[in-house]
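Posting for a labmate who doesn't have an account.
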Amino acid sequence: MGHLSTHVLDTANGCPAAGMQVVLQQGQGDGGFRTVKTVTLNADGRSDGGPLLDAAAMAAGRWRLAFHVADYFRGRGAALPEPPFIDVVNLDFGIADAQGHYHVPLLVSPFSYSTYRGS
């Protein structure tokens, strides 16, 4: 059964990004996005309560994960420039198979990030 999950690692501090806010949005026909869910990551850098989308909520189409990076690092006491180099990472991706497992990890620091389709 399909589902969507994420995991965020803070590469600047070598730990999960506990406390980071992540917004899940679904693409709309007009090119915009509708917010589906907002979560705050737990001590493991994951969403409490299981996947962001479970099998019943999975749908093919355009999706966005908005990771609130600057707020997270400011909360950890990092001195960021204004405006910050990386504020919100908007990661747009597609779900082609609603029965598939989509895992979207983010490795992030105040000055870089990397992502991939995980397992």
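Reply:
Got it, the structure tokens are right above this. The mean pLDDT is 97.
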